[in-house]
């Protein structure tokens, strides 16, 4: 699918048909599960009006935003009236935020298989070691005070948003609980000092 703007700028997109087919399939399944008879049809609508879209004939109509109203008016519903309020309440009730973290669970990766340690942000290859208050790359000798931040982000996305001092020592490959404590205090959120929780919350 190619979009051409008024300026002549062109951009190639993946055809949204596959994605829409999946939405239609899942929504039909959802309604069936709740014993609701509603016809589900897909329309691909582009939010911009000043563009030309080249596409091959496919399963769904492709429209510009301004064409949508007249398109729907030309196709009156042939089926019985549906209870919109009930259906919208049901959809809201079942709406859950999409949780892709931790990615190890999402992709079925064993946590033990994930490489630990701080990787050099410069050469993106060397392992970094904490020396004299700095991370130093064993390969290109680049130094950084903050190289552990991206490793903590990785931990949060791959393994768990919560991390203890011991887990951070293991993941950053730095066996110094005082240094680790300083790093975690500076970059993470601690749920409650009073509860003496050992967990630090990583911001993603
Ligand atoms: Zn390096």
Quick structural overview:
The chain is 34% helix and 19% strand. It contains seven helices and twelve strands.
Describe the protein.
- Helices cover 34% and strands 19% of the residues.
- It is α+β, with helices and mostly antiparallel strands.
- The protein has 2 domains: 2-93, no CATH class; 103-202, no CATH class.
- The strands form 4 sheets. Strands 6-7-8-9 form a 4-stranded antiparallel sheet, with helices on one face. Strands 2-1-4 form a 3-stranded antiparallel sheet, with no helix packed on it. A 3-stranded antiparallel sheet has the order 10-12-11.
- A hairpin with a 2-residue loop joins strand 7 and strand 8 (134-137).
- Helix 6 (165-172) packs across helix 7 (177-187).
- Bound molecules: zinc ion (ZN).
- Zinc ion (ZN) binds at residues 120, 122-123, 126, 137, 139-140, 142.
- Zinc ion is lined by residues 120, 122-123, 126, 137, 139-140, 142.
Strand order of the largest sheet: 6-7-8-9
Shape verdict: elongated
Bound molecules: zinc ion
Measured on Cα atoms, how large is the radius of gyration?
26 Å
